[in-house]
Design brief:
Layout: H1 21-31, H2 44-63, H3 65-69, H4 78-103, H5 109-117, H6 134-155, H7 161-189, H8 193-212, H9 224-229, H10 237-255, E1 265-267, E2 272-274, H11 280-290, H12 294-307, H13 309-329
Antiparallel strand pairs: 1-2
The structure holds Phenylacetyl coenzyme A.
InterPro entries: Aromatic_CoA_ox/epox (IPR052703), Ferritin-like (IPR012347), Ferritin-like_SF (IPR009078), PaaA (IPR011881), PaaA_PaaC (IPR007814)
Protein name: Ring-1,2-phenylacetyl-CoA epoxidase subunit PaaA
GO molecular function: phenylacetyl-CoA 1,2-epoxidase activity
């Protein structure tokens, strides 16, 4: 229904007996924990799945600059402004490493951006929610970067070399991002009653969208089984969501804030929290383009791309001239 590029049937996990000799040898390399490099042979499905996942991940980092960028001019102090600027710049860097990793698979950054702008490639659902107050910037760092790290730390062990190496650096920076968000939340939650109320309101609005970042429940996840057998993904969506809840609830308690879930309860037996699922119909609506900010986000990206055309054209013209001059000199 909502899957793109790789259809469900083609994505069925095949038994080793159904594989060609090349595919079997490839799967054995994955099972031994070897990294796959761009010039190695790989099944077409592996390549396509990686382009989809890395491409979506890159788009998320780039589109993800918008909700926080919205607050750079309104940060409450010079120090907060400088920190936020650095954080938003880091996200741009993450997008660039990831586009480079995708390009090693034979797709260009321009092609990926074209697909994004045509609505044919996704970015994370979370960035279709608005940042209404300064406390939201705290909640984004604490919860959104917190969820991103939960997902990305295991991806450092993903089977594709360039993706796994990009993740190592990205995770280091995300961990700083998460702490700066928590630091904002500490100030707000421990501030005046009005600031505390803003912090609680930000948690109320960002809690369920953050849980959605991990993707649909395992029974609805189209790609998990195949991606896990190729070690493109290391954990299921539900495993990571559970770990995120278990890590985040004590942090909310420390802040003196209440997680907006009546069903939230420690379960001794499973050694984790029981919690309410997000509203999955809302998630699928956001994926279809009907979230609160989908149109605004895509319009902003398309405008930035069009406004930057002269810079790209200038750089290409300079590169062409340099090549001609070098060739003439040789
Ligand atoms: N939003 O079968 P699955 C960040 C789609 S980085 C939108 O479970 P899969 C840093 C999925 O693509 C955040 N779409 O899919 C930051 C598929 O549709 P398709 C991004 C989603 O790939 C912080 C369909 O649903 N992180 O935040 C979402 O096995 C602050 C079926 O789902 C990554 O991309 C969603 N939340 O698992 C930046 C990490 N969930 O493609 C700025 C790498 C699912 O067939 C500020 N990615 N879908 O049309 C992954 O780990 C995986 O791709 C998942 C989804 C876990 C996201």
């Amino acid at each position: 229904m909502y899957a793109q590029m790789v259809n469900t049937d083609a994505n069925r996990v095949r038994d080793i007996s159904e594989m060609s000799e090349e595919e079997r040898a490839f799967q054995e390399r994955i099972d031994r924990g070897e990294k796959i490099e761009p010039t190695d042979w790989m099944p077409e499905g592996y390549r396509k799945t990686l382009i989809r996942q890395i491409g979506q991940h890159a788009h998320s980092e780039i589109v993800g600059q918008l909700p926080e960028g919205n607050w750079i001019t309104r940060a409450p102090t010079l120090e907060r402004k400088v920190i936020l600027l650095a954080k938003v710049q880091d996200e741009a860097g993450h997008g660039l490493y990831l586009y480079c990793a995708a390009e090693t698979l034979g797709v260009s950054r321009d092609e990926l951006i074209e697909l994004l702008h045509a609505g044919k490639m996704k970015y994370s659902s979370i960035f279709n929610y608005p940042t209404l107050t300064w406390a939201d910037i705290g909640a984004v760092g604490w919860l959104v970067d917190g969820a991103a790290i939960m997902n990305q730390v295991p991806l450092q062990r993903t089977s594709f070399g360039p993706y796994s190496r990009a993740m190592v650096r990205i995770c280091k920076e995300e961990s700083f991002h998460q702490r700066q968000g928590f630091d904002i939340m500490m100030k707000m939650a421990g501030g005046t009653p009005e600031q505390h109320r803003m912090a609680q309101d930000a948690l109320n609005r960002f809690w369920y969208p953050s849980l959605m970042m991990f993707g649909p429940s395992d029974k609805e996840s189209v790609h998990s089984a195949q991606s896990m057998s190729w070690k493109i993904k290391i954990n299921t969506n539900d495993e990571l969501r559970q770990k995120f809840v278990d890590q985040t609830v004590p942090q909310a308690e420390y802040l003196g804030l209440t997680v907006p879930d009546d069903q939230l309860k420690w379960n001794q037996e499973k050694n984790g929290y029981d919690f309410s699922e997000p509203d999955w119909s809302e998630f699928f609506e956001v994926l279809k383009g009907n979230g609160p900010c989908n149109k605004e986000r895509l319009d902003a990206r398309i405008k930035a791309w069009e406004d930057g055309a002269w810079v790209r054209d200038g750089l290409m013209a300079h590169a062409d001239k340099s090549t001609v001059a070098r060739t003439a000199a040789e």
